[in-house]
Design brief:
With about 500 residues, the chain is α/β, with parallel strands linked by helices. It has one domain: Alkaline Phosphatase, subunit A (3-Layer(aba) Sandwich). A hairpin with a 5-residue loop joins strand 14 and strand 15. Helix 8 packs parallel to helix 10. The model has no long low-confidence stretch (mean pLDDT about 95).
Length: about 500
């Protein structure tokens, strides 16, 4: 209680001390980081629906990874290599203690999480944000978040109002969420969660922005026997060996969702953004990591690469391919805005458009370590990014120069981002004519209010799949092999 009181006091004081000139200083720095859009991609997907699919604890090494000759994630592998998917293979998680909530803060705002704690928990309720849902909402999008856990987890029930989400479909919206065997760990099992989310997806007026947060591939990677149809790894580390099984289950869930969206006509008119939020296997499991990667021992360079997570943007007609650009979660928002054709002039974002021809590939971790295409700093050691060879400042003059520049940049970008959050600086932003601060009182995530709003929207804006289908539900088009649902059907 004393700690919380001190925290609240410090937050209040930092907000009181903040001034409009503090924001002006930040904006001056952000303006120097603004890059020109890529004319090859800018606006090519304008007006399409957006599915933001949050792959819980999913690391890049899982893509194309095999166990006993079997692909762990065949559906995601196919998606990753699709000619209409932009896939980034040098993309890093940049979370701190806030883990998933830090990833969401970066993905929705291009703001870093805090050095300690969770920004969504500490500041999500009262701060002013210029978030992706609000930006798209003010351009005619319906915005919704889906999560099969309680609404209060990571303070989402309050933070999502600050972000400008029209709807938040949390655990209370799912009748199956109350059945014990339909849940595991941090919420509903992915197959059931995604299937049950279809009842709300079909009601969203188009275009919409829908974020789906999966949870089954979450530590400690447990899965009941009836859902396991994939071999575990054999590292001897009980924490690690089930990881591929829950990842495989997530992959199957994703495949079922894609099949449904194709059947009901949403696939070709949507942009799909997939990202892993943070590492699944921590540095505490180095012997197991070495076995997974087929190495005798693990270096800090290997651990740095182990922070890679997937980032994919897919749309019918989009020019795809494997992009080797170095980037991180802070860059997701400006990159997506480029593809959607949303102007970002004047936005306070600390990431950069990874598609810009001027993008240099600077990745800053929350602890101040960093990666560039030439050098990597991780756990106070330096490496040649391309070869993995350890280097020192004394022996490499070029490294000394890069290290000095990147250290200054990391300090500045992390410090300014922290100032924006702890000082609630965006409340002072009156420079943008294309965006207005949202009123949190306009949002109500109670189930009764959400269902009433959806029902009203079918008449006021009859552009949803349900409305286009003259009120006939498409749920029968959603096919899942979830054994729990089959058991229930057989009981009936």
């Amino acid at each position: 209680a004393v700690f919380n009181a001190v925290q609240t006091y410090n937050q209040t004081e930092s907000r009181k001390r903040a001034k409009p000139t503090d924001l002006a200083k930040v904006k001056k720095f952000v303006a120097t980081q603004k890059l020109p859009d890529n004319i090859q991609y800018y606006g090519t997907q304008k007006g399409k629906n957006v599915f933001m699919i949050h792959l819980e604890s999913f690391q890049q090494f899982l893509i194309d990874y095999k166990v006993d000759g079997q692909e762990v994630t065949p559906n995601l592998n196919k998606f990753y290599h699709d000619q209409n998917t932009l896939s980034f293979d040098n993309f890093y998680n940049q979370v701190g203690q806030g883990k998933t909530s830090d990833a969401e803060m970066m993905q929705e705002n291009s703001l870093f999480g805090l050095a300690t704690g969770s920004a969504m928990v500490k500041y999500g309720t009262n701060n002013t944000f210029e978030s992706l849902p609000a930006i798209l909402g003010q351009r005619g999008y319906t915005t919704a978040a889906f999560h099969g856990d309680v609404a209060s987890f990571w303070n989402r029930d309050n933070t999502y109002k600050s972000f400008g989400y029209d709807y938040f479909f949390s655990k209370s919206y799912y009748s199956n969420a109350n059945k014990a065997n339909y849940n595991i760990g941090y919420g509903m099992k992915d197959k059931i969660f995604l299937r049950d989310s279809a009842q709300y997806i079909e009601q969203l007026p188009q275009p919409f922005y829908a974020k789906l947060i999966t949870v089954t591939n979450h530590y400690p990677y447990d899965l009941d026997k009836q859902n396991i149809d994939f071999p575990a790894t054999k590292t001897g580390d009980n924490t690690v060996d089930g990881y591929v099984q829950t990842a495989h289950y997530l992959d199957q869930s994703f495949g079922e969702l894609m099949t449904y969206l194709k059947k009901v006509g949403l696939y070709n008119n949507s942009v799909f953004v997939l990202y892993g939020d943070h590492y699944g296997i921590s540095e505490n499991h180095q012997p197991a990591i070495a076995q997974l990667l087929g190495k005798d021992e693990i270096t800090n360079y290997d651990l740095a690469n182990f922070q890679k997570v997937p980032f994919m943007i897919h749309a019918t007609g989009l020019k795809g391919g494997i992009n080797h650009t170095y980037g991180g979660e802070i860059d997701m928002m400006p990159t997506l805005l480029d593809v959607l054709g949303v102007p970002d002039d004047g936005m306070t974002m600390f990431g950069q458009d990874m598609l810009s021809s001027n993008y240099k590939g600077k990745v800053v971790f929350r602890d101040g370590d960093w990666i560039t295409p030439t050098y990597t700093k991780f756990n106070n050691q330096y490496f040649n990014t391309q070869t993995g060879e350890q280097v020192t400042e004394s022996a490499d003059k070029q490294l000394k120069k890069v290290a000095k520049t990147m250290s200054a940049y990391a300090t500045k970008v992390l410090g300014y981002s922290d100032e924006v959050i702890t000082g609630d600086l965006l409340r002072f932003d009156t420079s943008r004519s294309d965006f207005h601060a949202i009123n949190k009182k306009d949002y109500n995530y109670k189930k009764s209010a959400g269902l009433a709003a959806l029902k009203k929207a079918q008449k006021s804006n009859p552009s949803s799949i349900l409305a286009q289908n003259k009120g006939k539900s498409t749920l029968s088009d959603y096919v899942t092999d979830a054994p729990e649902l089959k058991s229930d059907d057989s009981d009936k």
